[in-house]
């Protein structure tokens, strides 16, 4: 059986060569891991004192409540508001009135092109700085909303345009109003097409919450700083642990997203043309 | 205000561009290698590449940069051999660790973009190439890669645009590129804050639009007629 359309099932000589590659790769990976471990060991990064905070209940609590929970809240609020922002401006960009279309276009292009960090700092200085923790939190949410909202606006616009034209025309033909066509016919169908893009934007938003570090908004990255700047000075272990938590959160989110997609849309694609990659996945 | 400090603004943006161009090129190279490993016939390579991509892609860039910038020196990972000066731009260990972090992070997205390009090649193309007796290397070189590369121009362009914006994250911890300079400038001139922000934002908008314009041209010139 061939494993892929890209190459034949290997003969004896190729198989031997592949075995060679396999051994070589394993050796290289093992060497990298061993080197990293020795490096860490030499600099005393495996000592108990460096890892102590991650088995101490007080710090675990801090990581969970001040870190994970805040990060998730930041991400949740940003995504919720971003979806609203995206729907409004995405539909705005499709408006028949030029005076609606152009401002929406400008807003979306602007926030898509400006780095989130710049936005975050501006909002922080203009508004959040004098409002304590509350201000820091909502500064991050506001900046992420504007950025992700602008990205989602493009996604929504593309999704609505991807709905077959006849759907809208048929809706108009039976006498629906513009708002009805959009909300009853186009948006529900577009939502299915856009779901993957929206969900992957959630991961982006979750990762970007780490930038809250800059305005000390709480969340995992801020907690990391507090831990390694404390009496442990265990920078390497802290960063590794916090990084691992982010990875874990994102993987869980991705898994939920895949589940949701299967449940809501099913596995079938709208236009299913067999592609090279798909065949590989099946094999 | 920005105009009065235009020399410093230019320096700040040259840091941004140095970070962007260097890590852009390096991440293209590394991403291509990763993508080749992921579609290739050796199972261990596929597994290694996809583990790397999954891990790094799900870690925030800030954390990766923290690792190289704050964690690195603790285990003697310092890049001290990087110490050049070009004009006003000092290429020092901060810039180097920034470039490493950006490359490590961006290469995973390059890999995914290239892979999506391979996925965009209709299966019949590969089958036809195989049917006329092409081996793996021939199929890849003459049929798949030319089409895959063209199909991956739009996603690659957005990866590079994201990279340009991500250079600001490097500023958050040490390199005085555009973002940090704006930060300092707004601290010194609180009254002109919005103006300063808008000018920096405008420069970024221009840079991003330039990139996407170039990408559009390439896309149109190279797109495969189907």
UniProtKB/TrEMBL annotation, chain A:
Question: What are the GO BP annotations of this UniProt entry?
Answer: amino acid transport
Signal peptide start and end residues: none
How this chain sits in the membrane, per its record, is: Multi-pass membrane protein
Keyword Transport in annotation: yes
**Annotated GO CC locations:** ATP-binding cassette (ABC) transporter complex
Q: So what family is this one in?
A: Belongs to the binding-protein-dependent transport system permease family.
What are the TM regions of this chain, as residue ranges? 21-42, 62-89, 110-129, 141-163, 184-206, 239-259
Specify whether Mitochondrion is a keyword of the entry: no
Which keywords does UniProt give here?
Cell membrane, Membrane, Transmembrane, Transmembrane helix, Transport
The record's annotation in InterPro entries points to: AA_ABC_transptr_permease_3TM, ArtM/GltK/GlnP/TcyL/YhdX-like, MetI-like, MetI-like_sf
Q: Where is this protein primarily located? A: membrane
Per UniProt, subcellular location reads as: Cell membrane
Report a single Gene Ontology molecular function: transmembrane transporter activity
Domain of life of the organism in this record?
A: Bacteria
Residue intervals of the ABC transmembrane type-1 domain = 68-257
Q: What is this protein called?
A: Glutamate transport system permease protein
